[in-house]
Amino acid sequence: MASARLLNSKSHLIPGKLKVSELIFEVPKDYTNPERGTIQLFARSVIRQEKPATVPSEEDIRKKAQKPYFVYLQGGPGFGCPPPQNSWITNAILDRGYQMLYLDQRGTGLSTPISAATLALQGDTHRQADYLKLFRADSIVRDCEAVRKTLTAEYPIELKKWSVFGQSFGGFCILTYLSFYPQGLREAFTSGGLAPVGKTTDQVYKATFQKVIERNKAYYTVRCTLFGGSHYGNRHLWFEKWLLISRLQKYPEDVETVQSLCFHIKAKGGLALPSGGKLTVRGLLTLGRAFGAHGGLDVVHDLILRCNTDLAQFQFITRPTLSALESALTFDDNVIYAVLHEAIYCQGIASNWSAERVGRKLTQFQWLVGSPQSAAAVRDGPLYFSGEMIFPFLFDIFPELEKLAQVADIIANYTGWPDLYDESQLARNEVPLYSATYIDDMYVDYDLAQDTAKLVKNCKQFITNSMYHDAIRSKTDLVLKELFALRDDSID
């Protein structure tokens, strides 16, 4: 495979003694048919900027800059990388002797970004869908390999391979990388990123819906925590302590609050959002995608509380609250996520809107049946929020997604997806893989992840039930400590 063509490189010093280089590459749009043209990739490399005691020679400068690369692949799909100075892992990785590369995956960030307007340049809906088919993990890892060959062309042989780190969907990409281009990798790390290799979209959503149900119960239910051991010499004192702890649990009062809010939205026929979209009952109930992150239950409660407070004072929901709701709900700025989310699991079959089909069969998600303001959504008992699922109705309520509804339907019904993984190659994998795996992960099911771990030779895991999917952001130092311990420690 050819290397990428470096079009532009500019370097800047930023606070914290970091030197950041902004890089623009040109790569084939379609690696199987280079005649289809090119797209651009944007990346930022970052190294420590040190002030030497003596004036170094050009050769010394060149060698000092040639540190092993550590490449960060963002979760998603459809999200670009943060600037290095704003990333939670930059300093920790540089301290371990690497230089970092933050690569905006194709179609995200500054890498020929995809929006309804840029997609329209491709032509009709079928041409737009054909273009989007080129933005899955198989193309992303080809981009990585093309960029690696360019950046390490003048490096000594021992530095030509690089290390990769994948958060969530970034980890999915790494399993594709290990399947088809392991020769480019020195080592690989994932956090919440062991993809469900060999599983269908229906199998994925049957598993993740159960995790969403668990998180809804945690959101709504008063749970009692009992002390073990001593009664502190006083049974009455121990009982009072137990009562105090039981009151510190989550949000049972939101059972009624969410019902009332849904009745309000239904009575109004939906609420106009600042961007021009329309908040429906079903749209509101997709807020649960936040449940899988640290503090996610509190994020959702805060939004529900804001709505309830507005209604109590004014009998309508204020613009600031509607803006906050819209920000939490919409994918108008990240359309790849909405259009390709189910396709990231597909190999040779169509997803056919799997999340909706699976969810409609579950009692807790009967609000997926019927009209956007269906009375089935507003019922006795807790209304369960959905999780990291994309439903066709989202393309009716957000303006940018509405323009892509036909394209999304073509993608959902496409059966020609190529393989994303080579299980025989994974079974003989020689590249060390170190994975942080979360038992209570709402987005990447733990049991499916364990099935994958059994398929991949040389995979070591840090497994915990004390962290959630976003732990690399919320508990950065702890996760990195455990991952590098897997690399550096021997069990024999």
From TrEMBL:
It holds the Pfam family Abhydrolase_1. Keywords: Hydrolase. Gene3D superfamilies: alpha/beta hydrolase. Signal peptide: none annotated. The keyword DNA-binding does not apply. Residues 70-216 form the AB hydrolase-1 domain. InterPro entries: AB_hydrolase_1, AB_hydrolase_fold, Peptidase_S33, Serine_prot/Carboxylest_S33. One of its GO terms (biological process) is proteolysis. GO terms for molecular function: peptidase activity. Belongs to the peptidase S33 family. This is Proline iminopeptidase. The gene is pip_3.
